[in-house]
Design goal:
Elements lengths: L4 H26 L4 H25 L7 H14 L1 H15 L4 H6 L3 H16 L5 H4 L1 H26 L2 H30 L6 H25 L3 H27 L3 H30 L4
Helix pairs in contact: 1-2, 1-3, 2-6, 3-4, 4-11, 8-9, 8-10, 8-11, 8-12, 9-10, 10-11, 11-12
Length: 291
């Protein structure tokens, strides 16, 4: 079948995508210290270049990569890790691919070729061993505890005290103490379990750091706004945003369902906040506290 200009344009788009991903993988590999991960990324880059040459046989021309996309995923990898960047890129790519009947007719082997490429790339991506993902459990522990405990604590303090600065100070003191306690508990837990492949000290650091950063974000509205009720609204919005961003990150990096995990975590945090809100009001009325 003769390839029309429209079909060649579609193939050119596929060709550009392959050479772009080739450069993305090479760019990430350049800054990857672990030899194993660097070798895997280089192998995937070679696969992408092989795909590029297949499409080049049809277009008979060289095509430049999309450097904006290359730098975007490079910075994502530097900021959030190579596993997240690679899986996000592959997920976006799979979502963008549609069953193009015109291409399937023009190139009958295209469907099986793309399926084989996707399978091989997933197998290679699964070989990536990134340290930060080994401590996801510790991060989840720190984040969950901070969100559940602190949204509840701040909600209770809001009705009991009704003073933004006092709430912020009380929350900060409680948060620092709780983060140290959580870090120590995680350290002892890791030591007692004897988990292989992870360091108890690093696990404790991830848990404590995640906890204190989350606490700081939740307290920030009380340091800025005079109205404790308005500050609480922004704190709850911030909590939902933190849950959304973190759940998205974990869902992409660990291939887990997003919406179910997000809804579950948000419901728990906001539910505890609502209960604590009522408890704070009852304590204020029963003890006749006026600050």
């Amino acid at each position: 079948m003769q390839l029309t200009e429209e079909i060649l344009n579609k193939i050119s788009a596929l060709q550009r995508n392959e050479i772009t991903e080739h450069h993305i993988y090479l760019k990430i590999a350049e800054v990857t210290p672990e030899p194993h991960n660097r070798e895997v990324l280089t192998r995937i880059a070679t696969e992408e270049y092989n795909h590029y040459t297949i499409w080049k046989q049809y277009t008979a021309k060289e095509i430049a990569p999309n450097m904006l996309r290359v730098w975007f995923y490079y910075f994502i990898a530097r900021l959030l890790g190579m596993t997240f960047a690679v899986k996000l890129m592959e997920g976006v790519e799979q979502g963008a691919q549609t069953r193009d009947e015109m291409l399937l007719v023009a190139i009958p082997e295209m469907q099986s070729m793309l399926a084989n490429e996707a399978t091989h790339e997933r197998e290679l991506i699964a070989l990536i061993d990134e340290e930060r993902l080994k401590y996801v459990g510790s991060v989840v522990l720190g984040l969950n505890d901070a969100l559940v405990e602190f949204t509840g604590t701040l909600a209770g303090l809001t009705f009991a005290i009704q003073n933004s600065q006092i709430i912020a100070v009380a929350g900060l003191i409680t948060g620092v103490a709780a983060s140290l306690s959580m870090a120590a508990s995680e350290y002892l837990s890791q030591r007692s379990e004897g988990t292989t492949g992870t360091s108890p000290k690093k696990a404790a650091l991830y848990t404590g750091a995640t906890y204190i950063v989350t606490v700081a974000l939740l307290i920030l509205p009380f340091l800025i706004l005079q109205s404790p009720y308005l500050a609480l609204v922004f704190t709850l919005i911030g909590a939902v945003l933190v849950i959304f961003v973190f759940t998205f990150y974990i869902s992409v990096a660990k291939d887990l369902p997003f919406w179910k995990r997000f809804a579950e975590m948000a419901a728990i945090s906001l539910g505890i906040a609502a209960i604590s809100f009522v408890i704070g009001l009852l304590i204020r009325v029963m003890l006749n506290v006026n600050i």
